[in-house]
């Protein structure tokens, strides 16, 4: 249990959802979703967010991104190519030590997709 504003306690799942919503907001929120076609957002068990991109849309076939909050208050952004036939998911790129204001740039660098006009 974690403390919430007003003295109410927050469960771990509420805490992880809050972290995931914050990460999505730092990526650009609804503008990010519209520009990239991202979908299937999942709050991870470790504080973070995972989502899918449309097939054959990003460079190198990247179709899954995972953003994890590290104890140092930075993020680790990992790009995967999920093969839906064999369910293999090789890692295609990873950057750690990413600050919140660098998230959009790192995403664009890994995927080749712009997050704003």
Number of domains: 1
The geometry reads as globular
Q: Unreliable segments (pLDDT under 50, ≥5 consecutive)? A: none
- Major pleated sheet: 5 strands, antiparallel
Can you tell me about this structure?
It is a single chain. This protein has 117 residues and is an alpha+beta fold. It has one domain (2-111). 27% of the residues lie in helices and 29% in strands. It has 3 helices and 7 strands; from the N terminus they run ββααβββββα. It has helices at residues 12-27, 30-36, 103-111, and strands at 2-3, 9-10, 39-43, 48-52, 64-69, 75-80, 91-98. The strands form 2 sheets. Strands 3-4-5-6-7 form a 5-stranded antiparallel β-sheet. A two-stranded antiparallel ribbon has the order 1-2.
Keywords:
117 residues, alpha+beta, five-stranded antiparallel sheet, 3 helices, 7 strands, 29% strand, globular
Write the layout of secondary structure elements.
Blueprint: E1 2-3, E2 9-10, H1 12-27, H2 30-36, E3 39-43, E4 48-52, E5 64-69, E6 75-80, E7 91-98, H3 103-111
Antiparallel strand pairs: 1-2, 3-4, 4-5, 5-6, 6-7
In short:
This protein is α+β, with helices and mostly antiparallel strands. It is built from three helices and seven strands.
